Structure formats: structure tokens, C-alpha cells
Structure prediction request, 477 residues.
Amino acid sequence: MFKKSISRRIVLYAFAIVTTSVIAVTALIWAGIYKINGEITETGKKLGEYSASEAKQALKDNTYSNLYYLAKLMASGADMGLTPDMLGDMLSGLTIGETGYAFFVDGLGNATVYSGSSGLQPERNLFEGSFYPLETAQRIINGESGIEQIVLDGKEKYIAYHPLSNNEGSFAFVADAHEVSAPSNLIENNINKQTNTAVDSINETAFLFSLFVVLIHLVIIAATMLFSSRLAKTVVKPIQKLIEDAVIIEKGNLDYTLEAKTDDELKILAESFNSMIASIKSATAEKERADERAQAAGYSQRILQFILDSLPVAVGIISVKNFEQLYKNGALAELFMLDSADETTEFDMFLHMPAIQPDGRETRGLFIEMNRHGRTVEELQFVKQNGDIFFARITASIIYYMGQPATLTTIENITAEKEYKQMLDFAPFGAHFWDERMNIADCNQTEIDIFRVGSKQEYIKRFYELMPEIQPNGQES
Prediction:
């Protein structure tokens, strides 16, 4: 029952996924075809309109050029000495479209028609009535040259004009705008026809393509159904075995090993499960050992605190990471004259030390340097809770406390000792100090001057070299 359920699920899931994919892809294809078809149709129309517009503009530019050339040519002929009658004979047989014409205008605005039928009577002045736009007539009379579009008798016309070199008149040529645009209209119709034919061909090709895509998807659905059925039979049994093994491990048997008798991803999955189980087993054992170490560390920490609390010397433990005060014994509270419990709890050693020591060294920098060396001895200045200043000898050692590296410091008040040493430094006689091992620990300046050594360190190091092995009385030094 379990196996059939998984098999059916695999088949149904595969069928649902493939069917959804087919529907989605088909919808996207049809949407794309519809969009492409619309864009192609719109582009075809725009192309037709653009091509017709370009054709119209080209013809218009050509007409402009021809009209202006004729006007300039006639003006040049007049400049070369041709009489108006001779020019009239030259233009009498000239045809400018069906309604175009040419005329000559003298300096007073009187027009003489040479060719065509214009409605403009010979010897008629351009400024009489409203036949010609006054601005255009004025530019012709002024001897300007150019070409422009005007309206005569309610119709659009093109007029080109050019003056004689002596400014005694100008030649002008007029053509109908409709006659110019007729060829471009024919071109526009041909372009639109070709565009519609291309769009119809694309629509037919798109339909055949979509039909082909649907057939391909039907073949894919059939192949997927067959493949999913075989896949379900191949995968279900190994998966069922893995589930049964996982149940055994879930009950706490971490020594059980999963087995997969395949050479595919299921074998990799089983090996991953086995690796995960081994990691869990190792982590569990490590956690048990860590708990034991933590328990032992807590016990050792309590013993250490008990020992430090019983010492008569002031002891403090400071975090190496952030200089936080982790521990302080009772002797330290007495040394710094901490009266209340709050003062003891909130004690911060750095608040009881100057930022800069009397010798110019930075206090926090000294502690950082002490942490690097692991164990060191320094003489530093401190301030008690009541404001009294005293000197202390600090012996610092790096330890592991409360799960982190820390500095264990013993603080010994040496104010009296330091004052005594300062007093001896001003004494007229040499003096030195011995430790319990009969080694020279310190000396005053007079001692250094007597033995003529360079420094106190050199004197301490060479003390036994500066005296004979046998004294004059025969005793060994």
C-alpha cells in the first residue's frame, strides 16, 4: 500500500508538472505570436507610412530643385543679354505640370506671363488684389531668391524665384502641389499592399509553428508518463528501505549503518546519512567530554578563588580581551580602601590608575605589553578610593580563567620601599639591597658612581666581578 501510494504520487506529480508546463509554454507561445503579429502589423503600417512620407519628401525636394533651377537659369539668360521677347519665346513651349506657369516681375511689381495658364493677367501688378501673398510678392520685388509653399485660389502651390543681377526684375516659376504628391500616393499604396501580404504570410507561419509545438508537447507528455512510471518502480523500494533504517536510528541506535544497494543518488544519500550519524555520535561524545572538562574547570576555579581569598597579598584577575575585572580578593579591597559592597563589586583597576604613569608610559599600553610577555613585573602608580597616591609592584601572569585568557596580577604596596630608595639615592655613601638568594636586587646612585659603571643594571649584573674572589683577610668573597 505504501509503495503504490508513492508510485501514484510520482506519476501524478510528473503528469501535473508536465501538463502545467505544456499549458504555460503554449500560452506563452500564443501570447508571443499575438504580440509579434501585432508588432509586425504595426511596424508594417509605420514602414508604409514612413516610406510614402520619404517618397513624398524626395519628390517635393526634387520639384523644389527643378523650379529653383529654372528660375535661376532664366535670370542668368537675362543677365547674358537675352531680351524679354527672346526669353518669352524660350518659355512659350515650356510645360510645368498641367497648371504650372512662369512669369517675369519688374521692379514695380508688374508681372508678364510667359507660359501656362495662371489666371494672372499680363502687365498685372502683384500687389493689386489678393491673388499673391503680400509677403511673397514683397520678397520677389526686393530681389530675393528662394522657393516656398503658398496658397493661390485656395490651392497649395510651390513658387521659386530668382532676381536678375542688375535687380531690374525677377523670374518666377509656379507648380501645383497636388501634381507633385500624386506619384508618392501611388508608391504608398504599393508599399501598404506589400506589407499586408507579408503580415498574412507571417500569421500563417505562426499558426503552423504553434501547431508543431503542441504536437511536440503531446509527445513529451506521453514519454514523461512512461518514464515516471518506471522511475517510481525503481526508486520506491530503496527509499522504503532507507525510511525503515532511519526509524531504527531515530530510536537511538547510533551504531546502526544504512545500506543502499544502488549506484545512484540514493547510495550517496545513504552515505551522507551514515556520515551525519558518525558526526552526531562524535559530537555527543565531545559534548560529554566538554561537560566533564567544564565541571572540572568550575571545581578548579572554586579552589583557585579559595586559595586567592586566603592570601594576604592583593590579587586581581583581568580579562585579556577587554580588560574587564573578573576577580579580586579581600586583600585587594583593603589595599584600595573599598568600604562598601558596591565599591568592591564595581571595582575597576584602571579607574584607580593614572592614564599616564610618572615615567611617561601609557597605563593600558603597559598592560597590553605585559600580556604579550606572559609574565612580567612592573612598578606602577595607583590611587586609593580616598584619593591617596601609592606605588605598587605588579607581578602579572597569563592564566585561563572562566573560559577565557586572563591576567593574574599580584599588587604589593612598595611606597615605603620606594621612598627609602629615594632617600638612599641622596645619601653620600654607597648602598645596595640583597634578596633572599643573596643576589643584588637594587642599589643607589652613589654605588654606581663609586664603581664607575654605566647603569644600575650593569652594576647588578657585574657585582661579583667587581670584587676579588678572596678578601685581604683571607675570606672568600
Observations:
- The mean pLDDT is 75.
- The first strand starts at residue 101 and ends at 106.
- Residues 2-79 form the longest helix (78 residues).
- The radius of gyration is 57 Å.
